[in-house]
Amino acid sequence: MSEPKKPWPTLPSDDAAERFVAQADLSEYDWSAAEPASYEFQDKVARVTMQMPERQLEAIKSEAALRGIEYQRFMRELLDRGLRWLRP
Asked: Considering the entire predicted model, what is its pTM?
């Protein structure tokens, strides 16, 4: 019987994730909950201009900073998650 796979660590930033990937044996980790993020690897040529409450934008920027990513990237992640929730 094989050993259970390790759970993924919480990585606070892109830099931490890059260090982890460079050093870890990824075959030891549980990939069952992995989510694709193909939108991050596609060319970003479409522009969107929208208005939103300043408090909402500040909340997005704050959460993105806690995650160590740019707020625009975090917004793309939120949009992608929302679309997958609508059409599972």
From this structure: 0.61
Q: Name the residue among 38, 41, 53, 51 with its Cα closest to residue 83.
A: 38
Q: Where are the domains of the chain?
A: 14-86
User: Tokens 């970003």 map to which residue?
Assistant: 44
The one-letter amino acid at 53: P
pLDDT per position as a tens digit, 7-60: 888 887 778 888 998 999 988 888 887 777 666 777 888 999 999 999 999 999
CB distance 39 to 76 below 8 Å = yes
Question: Residue 78 and residue 32: Cα distance in Å, rounded?
Answer: 21
| DSSP for 19-56, written as a single string | HHHHHS-GGGB--TT----GGGGS-----------HHH
Task: Give me 84's structure tokens.
Answer: 């997958």
